[in-house]
Design a protein that fits this description.
The structure holds 2 protein chains of 2 kinds. By secondary structure, chain A is α+β, with helices and mostly antiparallel strands. Chain A has 4 helices and 7 strands; from the N terminus they run E-H-E-E-H-H-E-E-H-E-E. Classes of the chains: A alpha+beta, B alpha/beta.
Chain lengths: 168, 120
C-alpha cells in the first residue's frame, strides 16, 4: 500500500484517503479473491467517480483493473465462480466510489453535497479540467486500486451527472 | 414484518438484504424500490412497517421522500443507509423524522444495533 502526491493545503491528506479506501474495500469486499500482482496500469481500468459540490468542488475517482472490478462484484454478491452481469459490475463500482466519496466529503470544507456515482472508461473523461490533489494506491490481497481526489479548477459546479450512472 | 428497501443500486439492495440475514434479522417480507419517487409509491402501496433508504438517488432523494411521507401524514419508521454519516446529515435526517442513520459500508453489527429494537 502506498500514498502518492502531497495534498493541497486545506484539502485532503493522502493518508486519510488511503485509510478511507482501505476501510471501505475491506468492509464492502470482504472476500475478494487474490488477483495477482503487477502495475495498476497494466490492465484496462474501470473507473467509478462521484462529485462533491459546494464549499469545495471536485471529484473522487476509484480506478481498478476491470478484472478486479469484476471479481469484487462477484464477492459483494456472493456469486462464487459465476461471472456477474456487466451492469452489476458498473453498479458495484459506482457504489464503492460513492462510499469512498461520501467519506472523503467529510474531509473537505462544508457545506457540500455528493453527486450520483458515474462509471466511465477513463477518469479523465469525467474529471477533465480538474486538478489531481491527492492520490492513494492500495494493494490488498493482490487486488489493486487507486483513489484520486480532484479539485475543480473553476468556481462552477463539477460536471455532475443527475441522471444516474453512465456506461463506460 | 414487511420491510421496504429503497436504493438506486441493485447490488446495494442485495447487500442490505443479506446483511439483515447475517444480523439475525432475516425472515421478513422484503419490498424494493430504486429511487425516492418509487419508494414513496411503494410505501403507499405496500404499507411496510420499516423503510431502509439510501439518501442520494435520482428522481427523488431519500430525504425528500421522507419529507413527502411525513407531509402526507405517513409516520412509517425510516432508517437511512447512506455513505454520508456526518453530524450535519444525521441532524437533517432526524429533523425530517428519520429514526436513525446507518453509514455505508455497514456491518451486521451496525444493523443489529439500530434495527434489532424494531425488528426483534
Amino acid at each position: 500500500m502506498s500514498a502518492l502526491a502531497d495534498p493541497a493545503p486545506g484539502t485532503v491528506a493522502a493518508a486519510d484517503v488511503e485509510s478511507i479506501a482501505r476501510d471501505v474495500w475491506d468492509s464492502a469486499v470482504p472476500e475478494a479473491p487474490p488477483l495477482g500482482q503487477g502495475p495498476l496500469d497494466a490492465d484496462r481500468l474501470a473507473v467509478g467517480a462521484v462529485s462533491i459540490s459546494g464549499a469545495w468542488q471536485g471529484w473522487v475517482t476509484l480506478e481498478v483493473p476491470v478484472l478486479t472490478a469484476t471479481r469484487a462484484t462477484a464477492a459483494m454478491l456472493r456469486l462464487g465462480e459465476a461471472a456477474p452481469d456487466p451492469d452489476d459490475v458498473d453498479d458495484a463500482l459506482g457504489e464503492l466510489a460513492n462510499m469512498i466519496g461520501g467519506n472523503v466529503k467529510s474531509l473537505v470544507p462544508a457545506p457540500s453535497t455528493l453527486g450520483l456515482p458515474v462509471v466511465a472508461a477513463r477518469a479523465r473523461e469525467v474529471v477533465a479540467g480538474s486538478r489531481e490533489v491527492c492520490r492513494a494506491e492500495l494493494s490488498r490481497d493482490g487486488a489493486r486500486l487507486c483513489v484520486r481526489v480532484w479539485q475543480a479548477q473553476t468556481s462552477g459546479d463539477p460536471e455532475v451527472n443527475t441522471e444516474g450512472r453512465e456506461a463506460p | 414484518m414487511k420491510i421496504l428497501i429503497v436504493d438506486d443500486s441493485r447490488v446495494m439492495r442485495q447487500i442490505v438484504v443479506r446483511t439483515l440475514r447475517q444480523a439475525g434479522l432475516g425472515g421478513h417480507e422484503i419490498v424494493e424500490a430504486d429511487d425516492g419517487r418509487a419508494g414513496f409509491d411503494a410505501v403507499v402501496q405496500h404499507r411496510p412497517q420499516l423503510v431502509l433508504s439510501d439518501w442520494n438517488m435520482p428522481e427523488m432523494t431519500g430525504i425528500d421522500m421522507l419529507r413527502a411521507l411525513r407531509a402526507a401524514g405517513n409516520d412509517v419508521p425510516l432508517v437511512f443507509v447512506t455513505s454520508e454519516g456526518s453530524p450535519e446529515m444525521v441532524s437533517r435526517a432526524e429533523q425530517a423524522g428519520a429514526m436513525s442513520v446507518i453509514t455505508k459500508p455497514f456491518t451486521p453489527e451496525s444493523f443489529r444495533a439500530v434495527l434489532e429494537p424494531v425488528l426483534a
